[in-house]
Amino acid sequence: MLASFWPGRRQAASNPSTASADAAVSDADSGVRVSGKVRVDRRTKDLCLRLRRGEIALIDHADLDPAAAYALAERHPAAVVNAARSITGRYPNGGPAILLDARIPLLDACGSQLLENVREGLLLTVDGNRVLLDGREVAHGTLLKRADVDAAHEVARRNLAGELEAFSRNTLEFLSREKDVALGDLVLPPLEVSFRNRPVLVVARGQGYKQDLQSVRSFIREQKPVLAAVDGGADALLEAGLRPDLILGDMDSASDAALRCGAELVVHAYPDGRPCPGLARTERLGLSAHLLPAPGTSEDAAMLLAHQAGASLIVAVGTHFSMVEFLDKHRAGMASTFLTRLRVGSILVDAKGLSRLYRPAISPALVGGILASALLPVLVIVTSSPAVQRWFGLGWMGLEVWLRRHGLR
Description:
Blueprint: H1 6-14, E1 24-28, E2 31-40, H2 44-50, E3 56-59, H3 66-74, E4 79-82, H4 95-101, E5 106-108, H5 113-117, E6 123-127, E7 130-133, E8 136-140, E9 142-143, H6 146-183, E10 199-204, H7 209-215, H8 217-223, E11 226-230, H9 233-239, E12 246-249, H10 256-259, E13 264-269, H11 277-284, E14 290-293, H12 298-308, E15 313-317, H13 323-328, H14 335-344, E16 348-350, H15 351-357, H16 364-383, H17 386-405
Parallel strand pairs: 2-3, 3-4, 4-5, 10-11, 10-15, 11-12, 12-13, 13-14, 15-16
Antiparallel strand pairs: 1-2, 2-6, 5-9, 6-7, 7-8
């Protein structure tokens, strides 16, 4: 996946015209020097919806996770400026390495006040460790190198055991406190799409989702599963040429185009009945949506809905399975997800595992094509033989004699 980013970065470095019209890229003795229109947002996934090639992304994302880094890299920015520390040392997060491998400069720990001082759309310059606005330094950070990331990861690995212990303790506390809520049945809305005895693909835009979707292409084509997208997973399906049947989530990371694609919309609501921001967005777009009060993440809610609605199989694409992935999501615990996996585990399979187990059926058309291609050379050889041609000639003469004898010709 990273290989697809590299050519764009080389081209942008040597030919600024491939970037946005107001972006310029050059080398400096102090390191990297890039200029471009700035996009500003404290929510990285929201910023990625607006970010364009050659622009500068200004984020505030501590412990930059792989999913966010991939989303940024796919937009081919000239640079990423992080107000927070991209690696705090809590655990070895993979986001910074992804940006550096994609040859995208990452200026780190520039201070949260930078987001207050810089307005979106202005021309910003990253000059080594400095951030310049109209030639004036407005912030100073650390331009990360791969050696810095590797060293920080080594320190973070030593902290991982303690971080996971605290994470597990929070999970157990939630289990004892909220098990009745988490294990109870959901009040399902009246859905038009039917899950009964059908396989379901639950698609989230998490790490590796593109590879996951590619690996289950034949399964989708042959089994015709229900395509249930979790928020931005709707855009992932549309990018792959597939239309989701249902979109479930907070409706904060799916694009307007995805929400308008014709899929049935289910807003993940708070279990205690608090107002849900996602419903306000769908109403603003003039779209109707169901409400689904449920604990845990939207991924959990989608799996529980599919299971309770009678799905025969749930295939997870781009969802979270490991503790480190949940640390990336900055969740205090994973109790709801742990309980969800326990409830649906008998029919749940990860897309990576399915691609190893599932073998696509050979269609009759394919068999016919193979036989035709094999018989064609034989037919050409046979019909070009003089002996065979004489045999056909005699046969045709015999047929004409028979037809005349019976008055048919």
